[in-house]
Amino acid sequence: MTSAVIVSLRIKATPQETFDVFTREIGLWWRPNGLFQLTPRGDGQLRFEPGEDGRLVTDLANGTTFEIGRISAWVPGERLALSWRHGTFAPDQATYVEVRFERVGDDEPRVTVEHRGWDAIPQEHVARHGFPLQPFQMRQAEHWRALLAALARQTAAGR
User: Fold this and answer.
1) Is residue 121 scored above 90 in pLDDT?
2) Fold category of 4-157 in CATH
3) I need a surface site. Which of 15, 56, 104, 110 has the fewest CB within 10 A?
4) pTM value?
5) How far apart are CA 19 and CA 51, in angstroms?
């Protein structure tokens, strides 16, 4: 796995505040995208079960819970890392997301999302929509940019 989508945005809050909104309020700022649905039934309501070895899950309208990923790094105010699966992935398929909360100025962290591993998911897989890797990753980056903008709005609303 060498390819990665990397997107950054500065958010006017402390790294800890931003981490807290990212993890505690993901159900409020997450914006579904029809092209990148987490399950064939949609994205549902996302929530973290915090801590290392915790999970990111989504609660679907039909009452089921789908595990999107397992948390491998939980460092409040600094870093979050987890596996990332779509509902259509085979058991041996996963991508990986790392989120860094880095101070670059007074109370203005840069939040960087690195989503890697899409090169291991075949182009013909439903999650890739038949896109070659580069155009797919460009669309994936657009989606993450929109998500970080929603995170920034949610963070500002809580200040």
Assistant:
1) yes
2) Alpha-D-Glucose-1,6-Bisphosphate; Chain A, domain 4 (3.30.530)
3) 104
4) 0.94
5) 13
Across the chain, the runs of DSSP E, i.e. the strands, are 4-10, 45-49, 55-59, 65-75, 79-84, 95-103, 109-116
What is the Cβ-side half-sphere exposure of residue 34, based on CA atoms within 13 angstroms? 0
Closest alpha carbon to 147 in 36, 72, 57: 36
CB 76 within 8 A of CB 19: yes
- Which residues have a Cβ under 8 Å from the Cβ of 43 and sit 6 or more positions away? 30, 32, 37, 58
As a whole number of angstroms, the distance between CA 89 and CA 39 comes to 9
pLDDT for 34 equals 85
Task: Give residue limits of the domains in the chain.
Answer: 4-157
Calculate Rg over the CA atoms of the chain: 15
